Amino acid sequence: MHRRTLLALAPALMIGSARADGLPRSINHKAGVALDGWDPVAWFTEGRPRRGSPAFSAEHAGVAWHFASAAHLARFQADPAAHLPRYGGFCAFGVARGYKVDIDPEAWHIRNGVLYLNYDRGVQRQWQRDIPGNIARAEANWARLAER
Asked: pTM value?
């Protein structure tokens, strides 16, 4: 009986520890590095994902963001909001469905100047079947999900 109770409480205990670390929940990060180190500017400037480097790093929204070059870092610092992925870099389709999940940097697109990331290319195909509807659902869910 104690083992079942402990297993039932495990998610709540993990949530509690995540709050205690002081890192934001609204940004997809691992150990305080946004997007697992992927350069958010590269999708806009190079049309592809690119790994960033700790040598070109900036703090924004409580986490570190890595960039592939000094030029990308400078571009981000000049206008962070223009380069941040929507929904904190979590899978846009997942947010539309009511949950936050990680992304595959190869599953992305930019629409109206906004970067949307998806879990994988299969999920991206589902997202693309109704982008306006999925965005509307994701926008409605994001306020509730952002800090969960």
From this structure: 0.85
